[in-house]
Amino acid sequence: MDRIVPSGSDKQDGKPSTSGVGADTSRVSIESVSPSTPRGGPPSSLTPEPYYQDDLITLYHGDCRVVTAWLLADVLVTDPPYGYSHSSGGGPRGAASWRRTVIANDGDSSIRSWMLEAWGAGPALVFGSWKRPHPPAARAVLVWDKGGHRGMGDLSIPWKPNHEQIYVLGSGYIGERTSGVLAGHHLPPSEAAGRVHPHEKPVSLMGALIRKCPPGVIADPFAGSGSTLVAAKAEGRRAIGVELDERYCETAAKRLAQDVLFGGVA
Ligand SMILES: C[S@@+](CC[C@H](N)C(=O)[O-])C[C@H]1O[C@@H](n2cnc3c(N)ncnc32)[C@H](O)[C@@H]1O
Known about the structure:
By secondary structure, the chain is an alpha/beta fold. The chain has one domain: Vaccinia Virus protein VP39 (Rossmann fold, 3-Layer(aba) Sandwich), CATH 3.40.50.
């Protein structure tokens, strides 16, 4: 089966690096590969044209189990479906366009398990919910303190669910040893105020995570509105993303293009 893969093998694990993703097509070649992914995932297919591409970022519209180019990256930073059919209430006034919609593949955590198995032992920062078992290979859990988040949760107890978990897997992380509770990263409170995805993560939070990642290309196979990709770009890192829902691909592409045009980060 033909698949577009980067040439060269400059990674310690001997797998080809995706340092060539993005505009640097000089390192990209078309090879004939067996119908298994480099990391042992399921059959791959012809990689589609990128939905968005610039010097650093490549975003594909598709199913990350089929569009497997992300498996060639060096570091996984991703926010997969939570795995418990979470349905957003639509914000404080319940007015968001995604009100009562469910994220694709959110019925259980099997897609996260698939992703981690396909990824293997490489470095991975993976968002998750305490309502599902943590990945067996997790070495640590970080907590995103959402601050003033007004999540409803269980109204019969006097605490708000204003936090999320981030699992740390693999090795090679860098930087100063700081608190595992990540505070001060906020989202607009509503779609009207600028929220663009029901499960959006702050770009500043993704940037803080990325700055402690080992060098190399970042993968986000569940890119959503592109927060990881926008943060990677702001940090000058190459990144490759995949998103199933075209609505969110479009949002991500707009955020990334806006960054190109205005030099800012959405
Ligand atoms: C938790 S959200 C990610 C939100 C993202 N962190 C952001 O800031 O916008 C998970 C995303 O995974 C996407 N998704 C679900 N199944 C997928 C699949 N098989 N391949 C690619 N994307 C998928 C959903 O459409 C959703 O946008």
